[in-house]
Structures are given as structure tokens and as C-alpha cells.
Design goal:
11% strand; TIM Barrel; Rossmann fold; binds beta-D-glucopyranose; 6-stranded mixed sheet; 2 domains; alpha/beta; 596 residues
Length: 596
């Protein structure tokens, strides 16, 4: 309110000045007036996003920082909704009281729900949501996440990831909806619309072709993440640009994050061609372009050269969690010595002012209360719709009075259900930080108890069970830590206990229902013949009842694969986008999924 008034006064004042001078031809908009009134330091401050842990309110105030982020797992203490709101309010006030008088945009990665906050509902990760093919559901999830964010005073989400994933060995495969560009485009845009309808700025990331990097077997770790894309421009446009076009032109996404990766050995953060010529000029993107976490430091040259290259390429705001003071200093030098033109700074700051104005941040983010029951019901629906039934020899649906032996490393573990970006960046291996979640064991037990049946978890009780339900998982991971050379069910990032579980299930000689709880398909070719039913459960989040809803037949299966299921680890060769794929390498085609 105060800010709006201040801008108005500046506007009116200048209008009256202009009429005195009788030069009415240049009438500036309030935002142009605002820009014209700002000092260089204030402008540069607006172009910086620092980390919560690396700033005080005094720094925000003195440097007129434009934005603050909490990276994966970064949270206030205690990690409660109230403490988050207090933190963001305090920081926002410090910003508004700065000389520029501008509100702050606080950003987080709420990539499957507001996942840094303890106790909130976590939705399935995007690879699961791809199986729903349900735009309307994605829009509702976007809205629900928007409410979770507003309740903590946060107005910017670094989501959705619009990667068109061509190689599921990539550690970020689960952040993408599909290998198929039109599906990524429609689900991503629906999510953006839902989020932005709640007054939250969405981010299409990571621009461009993050899902198309090469597998670099010469490196022992990180072979794919942040890598290089070897494709022609026509191929990049046909595969990877598609979701951005829809996000900009249809969903009106307000921010785009640049990818760590390179195209033909040119780092995206230094690419004037892709950021300015294509994104801003050809596609007419008028929101803000943000760099990824310290990504500009991967550009060649000294700090001043890195900063200038990125800003001159078209990056408007720099995600500089730690080094923001050094960066600010060199930004100023680069402007003073002409390496960065003032017009480029003004364009960047104008874009930042515009999104802040569009989001009505000066009047404060509309408050919100998280509706846990609504979120739980929505997540449960999303879980049920994302389960994919890939084999069923009559054992499913389970009768509710079935006595079940439930085994495997994932049966009572929200950390494994939720994967990376859950409470912490790399994810958790237990239930400690998910106080309101439901594990598979709890979901099965609730049904059994209500129907006089038993859920056994000890092998010694195997003879009492009618059916074995075996839950196999991956270990949680995020980003490059999740890159793997093998898609084996029993090695690489697959849980080390999977092998023993598989062996034991075969010895029991009862019908076996296998659930795979993982971010991506794993190779099942040698084992699936021993299973009577096989369900891809994905990283489904906190609401396991969505899984039991379909297993017991209360809800029919409707999910179908949005990724090809390979028989080999070289998954880049099996993608349905690869015209030279070999049918012998494919276990299940994209689109596979049975119903009752
Ligand atoms: C990731 C981004 C994320 C950012 C902030 C980076 O490492 O690549 O996806 O938005 O961190 O947490
Ligand atoms: C942060 C993440 C970020 C990553 C980049 C972590 O410390 O929590 O948000 O993506 O660093 O390497």
C-alpha cells in the first residue's frame, strides 16, 4: 500500500513537472518512473537473489536485494509454517524499508508440494504425474501448492521442471513429466496456470534442453546432469523448446531458469542466442530470466567476465546464494567500464519491477491457510491416478480380507516414498520429518484391520499369508547424485535390500504383487516372470492410501506410462523420440497401462 502510494506520488509529481515544462510527449508509466528514480546500486541489488542462510535483514535492507531463496532443505528453525511466515515477513519488511522501497520476491523449490516445510502434504513427483495425463489435476495441484506457499509468505516457485527427459539414467529424470514434448507442455502449463492463479510466480526450468544431455561414460560420477547436448537446432526446437512455447504463450509463465547444461559445448548461461534471440525476441518472453545456483561461475574467465557474459546473454537475476557481495561489486565495475550497457540493466530491472507489480507484492501477498484435509485428498487422488498396472495375472484387485505378507525396504518409509527434494535436498531415509504422512504399511493395515485381515511383515509368518506384496525402491537422490550408469533393480541407486527381498519372495511360493517405488523405470526383464502382478508406484509422496485405493479396487487403474520402459540401461536409445530404437530393447511401450 505504502509503496503503491509512493510510486503514485512520484508519477503525479513528474506529470505535473512535465505539464509545467509543456513537454507532454514523454509520459512515463509508474514503473518507468520508478526505474528512472533508482540509483545504480539499487538497480543492481534488485538483480540479485541471495540465500536465506547467508543474509541478515540489514543486508537485504542496505543492498536493496531483489530476492531471497531457500535452496533444497534450507529452512528456518523451528521448521514450521508460522516460523516460515515470520521469516519471510521480516525479510520482506526489511526490503520495503530499503532506499528503493521495493518488496522482496522469496523463492523456493516447491517441486512436489512445499517440500522444505516439515509436515506438509507432498504430492507425487512429476515422473509419476506424467502417468496421469490429467491437465485438470495438475492445475488443481498447482493451486494447492500455491496456497501452501502463500501460507508461508512465499511468492515464487522454482517449478515446474519442463525437462523432456530422453535418458532416465539422469538423476533428475523424476523431475520431468515425460520423454514426449507435448505431454510435458500440457501438464507443465496446467501446473503453471494453477500456481499463478494463486498469485505465485511459476518458473519454467531448466532452459534449454536439460533433459537432452549426453551420457558421458568417461566420467565416473555425474555423467549426465549439467552435461552437454549434442543436437542440431532443429532437433532442439522439435524436442526441447516445445514446452517453453506453451508455457510462455498459453500459461504466461513469469520466470524462466537457465540450465546448468550446454548446447554443443556452449554453456546455456552464456548463450545470447538462446536467451535473448530466441526466448526474449522470437518467443516474446517478457518475464524474468534467472540463473541457476551459482551456475554463472561455470562460465569461462574471471568473475567480472562471468557476470558480464551472463547478464549480456540476457540473464535478469543472478541466483547467487553465497557470493552476492562480490558479484554486486563486479557488476558495478562492468557497468562503469561499459562492459554491461545501462540499457541491459534497465531492461533487467524493468522486468523485475514488472513481475513484482503483476504479483501485487507491494500490497503484500494475500494470506492463506493450509487445508491439510484438502491437500491429502488431492494428493491421494493424484497417487491413485499415477499408479501404472503393468502386469496382472488375476491377483489384483486384492480382496479386503486378504492376509498379506508385506516385505521390502520401502514398506514403512516415507523418505523412500517421497525421494529427493523432500524435507532435504537429497531426501530422507525414514519417517522422522514427515509427521502427517501415511506409509504403505499404515495404509494396508488400516484396510486389513477394518476387514478382519492381517498384514504380516516377518518372513516367519509367510505361511499365514494369502499373497506376498513386495515393495522395491531406489535410494533417495537429487540432481547429479542421482545419475547412474545402470538401471538395474538391484545395483546402482536401487536399494541394496531389493536383491534379498526378490530372492525371498520367490521362495515363499505364494502369488507375488510387486510395487516399484522409484523415480524412473528399472530393468525388470529377468524377474517379472515370477511376479503375478506388477505396479509402477513411482515416488508418490506422503499419501500411500492412493496406492491401496487401486490395489484393492476401490479406484480403477488409469495411469499409463509417459516414459518407455527399457530392458537395457542405455535408455537414451529406447526413448520413443528416437527413430532408430530397437523393439527388442523395450519392456513396455510408452502408453502402457492395464485397468481392471
Ligand atoms: C537446481 C535448481 C534449483 C536451484 C535452487 C539448483 O541446484 O538445479 O533446479 O531451483 O538449485 O534450489
Ligand atoms: C541446495 C540446493 C541446490 C544445490 C546446488 C544445495 O546445497 O540446497 O537447493 O540445488 O545445493 O548444488
Amino acid at each position: 500500500m505504502i509503496i503503491a502510494k509512493k510510486w503514485l506520488i512520484v508519477g503525479l509529481l513528474s506529470l505535473s513537472l512535465m505539464s509545467c515544462k509543456k513537454t507532454p510527449e514523454i509520459i512515463l508509466t509508474p514503473l518507468e518512473e520508478k526505474l528512472a528514480s533508482m540509483s545504480l546500486d539499487e538497480k543492481l541489488g534488485q538483480m540479485i537473489q541471495a540465500e536465506r542462510y547467508a543474509v541478515t535483514t540489514a543486508t537485504i535492507n542496505e543492498l536493496n536485494l531483489g530476492s531471497i531463496l531457500s535452496g533444497g532443505g534450507s529452512h528456518p528453525t523451528p521448521n514450521t509454517v508460522e516460523a516460515w511466515l515470520a521469516l519471510t515477513t521480516k525479510m520482506n519488511n526489511a526490503a520495503k524499508n530499503g532506499s528503493a522501497g521495493l518488496p522482496l520476491i522469496y523463492g523456493v523449490d516447491a517441486v512436489h508440494g512445499h517440500n522444505n516445510v516439515e509436515g506438509l502434504v507432498l504430492f507425487p513427483h512429476n515422473s509419476a504425474l506424467g502417468a496421469t495425463h490429467d491437465e485438470e489435476l495438475l492445475e488443481r495441484i498447482g493451486k494447492a501448492v500455491g496456497v501452501q506457499l502463500r501460507a508461508t509468505g512465499i511468492s515464487w516457485n522454482f517449478a515446474p521442471c519442463l525437462a523432456v527427459v530422453q535418458d532416465i539414467r539422469w538423476g533428475r529424470a523424476y523431475e520431468g513429466f515425460s520423454e514426449e514434448p507435448n505431454l510435458v507442455a500440457s501438464l507443465g502449463s496446467a501446473y503453471i496456470k494453477g500456481l499463478q492463479s494463486e498469485g505465485i510466480m511459476a518458473t519454467a526450468k531448466h532452459y534449454l534442453a536439460d533433459g537432452g544431455t549426453d551420457f558421458d561414460s568417461s566420467k565416473n560420477s555425474y555423467p549426465i546432469d549439467q552435461g552437454n547436448v549434442s543436437l542440431t537446432e532443429a532437433e532442439i526446437r522439435a524436442l526441447h523448446l516445445v514446452p517453453y512455447i506453451k508455457a510462455i504463450q498459453d500459461a504466461k509463465v513469469k520466470s524462466i531458469m537457465v540450465s546448468f547444461s550446454s548446447i554443443n559445448n556452449q554453456k546455456m548461461h552464456g548463450s545470447t542466442y538462446w536467451i535473448t534471440t530466441i526466448l526474449k525476441e522470437e518467443l516474446k518472453f517478457d518475464g524474468i530470466v534467472i540463473s541457476d545456483w551459482e551456475a554463472i561461475h561455470q562460465l569461462p574467465g574471471s568473475l567480472i567476465y562471468q557476470v558480464s557474459s551472463a547478464i549480456n546473454a540476457g540473464v535478469d537475476m543472478l541466483m547467487e546464494p553465497n557470493k552476492y557481495k562480490d558479484v554486486l561489486a563486479v557488476m558495478k565495475r562492468a557497468v562503469e567500464n561499459g562492459t554491461i550497457k545501462m540499457e541491459r540493466i534497465d531492461d533487467a530491472v524493468m522486468r523485475i519491477l514488472k513481475v513484482k507489480d503483476d504479483l501485487k507484492l507491494s500490497t503484500g501477498l494475500a494470506s492463506a491457510t493450509i487445508d491439510m484435509e484438502n491437500d491429502k485428498a488431492l494428493a491421494r487422488e493424484a497417487v491413485a491416478k499415477s499408479q501404472v498396472l503393468l502386469k496382472n495375472e488375476g491377483v489384483l484387485p486384492l480382496a479386503k480380507n486378504t492376509d498379506i505378507l508385506l516385505i521390502g525396504p520401502g514398506i514403512d518409509n516415507v523418505g523412500y516414498q517421497a525421494g529427493g527434494w523432500s524435507f532435504s535436498w537429497q531426501g530422507e531415509k525414514g519417517n522422522e520429518h514427515f509427521p502427517n504422512a501415511t506409509t504403505l504399511l499404515e495404509a494396508f493395515t488400516a484396510i486389513a484391520q477394518a476387514n478382519g485381515a492381517h498384514i504380516y511383515t516377518q518372513l516367519k509368518d509367510a505361511s499365514k499369508a494369502d499373497v506376498v506384496v513386495m515393495v522395491l525402491t531406489e535410494n533417495p537422490y537429487a540432481e547429479g547424485i542421482g545419475d547412474t550408469k545402470t538401471l538395474s533393480l538391484t545395483s546402482g541407486l536401487a536399494h541394496p535390500d531389493n536383491a534379498e527381498t526378490i530372492r525371498q519372495a520367490k521362495l515363499i511360493k505364494k502369488p507375488i504383487v510387486t510395487l516399484l517405488m522409484s523415480g524412473r523405470p528399472l530393468i525388470v526383464e529377468d524377474e517379472i516372470e515370477y511376479w503375478d502382478a506388477f505396479v509402477m508406484s513411482w515416488l508418490f509422496g506422503t499419501e500411500a492410501q492412493g496406492v491401496t485405493d487401486v490395489l484393492y479396487g476401490d479406484v480403477n487403474f488409469s495411469g499409463t506410462l509417459s516414459f518407455t520402459w527399457p530392458k537395457i540401461s542405455e535408455a537414451n536409445t529406447t526413448s520413443s523420440m528416437n527413430p532408430d530404437r530397437n523393439a527388442d530393447d523395450i519392456q513396455f511401450e510408452i502408453g502402457s497401462g492395464l485397468t481392471y
